[in-house]
């Protein structure tokens, strides 16, 4: 029985040896090339197979294309995979595996060994995260809807100071509520030279706090408008009472009044209408809005009285950044024209630009005094 056992063992050894006779061993791992670059925690690996090296070991160095072609089916079947390629940090391990066509290897009588390679990540530089928008001062200036945006890079860091920023979308014609997107054109590879990195390369800035021109009468402050009406009425009375004004002459254009008693006064005064004229917010009109106060007036002296109109003009009413209604109201003596023909006066004020405005009569403006 022992002799029979030895005989069976000998046959098995001879069979295994026979299977290996004429086969070549090839180790793949030496031909797996890796290159790890970047900062620790953000590094990436580039991995590939040294195909020329594999052909050289199989066909021989300096082999002809015909000799290399014998192994092409096997070489072309090689596929490399990697279990982790990004966000690599010191201490990580990368496992690379090569798969191949076993039938092609058998046909060439190749024993493929070492087709798995393990690479330990080490020696990467530690990086510093930076905020590229920390010292970027964004300013929106002007009055809506004509405001515009600018920025200033106030960083004291030489590299961050050199960065380029791009404002996406419109940079002008801005109003409250608009959202501005600013991109930082930072190159990750260049930043790594300074041991810097960032994942935030874009920011949004919401426009707020701008003064805004008024195009809708609902934004007007009727209390302020009533106060202005009082100021206009007071100006009419004060100017008429002034003996140097000669208001009857100014109202009628009749030079005979220049030779009469210059003791003149307002006999009656009534706010006839208030007109709100709004532009289109496109820059086509001289003013963004106009408010006209129309008064019916009777001016008298010791001998005569004349009826006429005074039209006061106020322009560019706004709501400031805090929401407060504001309009220039200084120098009322320079804001009016007077005469007896309303249409002529109106055209004089508007200078035939009515087509540039939407017109609306304002109701409910009640001056507290100075009318009679």
Textual characterization of the structure:
This protein folds into three domains: 21-120; 128-210; 217-362. The longest helix is centred in the middle third of the chain and has 20 residues, at 222-241. The protein has helices at 2-20, 51-59, 65-69, 72-76, 102-107, 158-161, 188-193, 222-241, 247-252, 342-350, and strands at residues 24-27, 32-37, 44-49, 79-82, 93-99, 110-113, 116-120, 128-129, 136-141, 147-153, 165-168, 172-174, 179-184, 196-197, 202-206, 212-213, 265-278, 289-300, 305-315, 318-319, 325-326, 336-339, 358-362. The protein has ten helices and 23 strands. With 372 residues, it is of the alpha+beta class. It has a five-stranded antiparallel β-sheet. A three-stranded antiparallel β-sheet has the order 4-5-7, with no helix packed on it. It starts with a helix and ends in a 10-residue tail after the last strand.
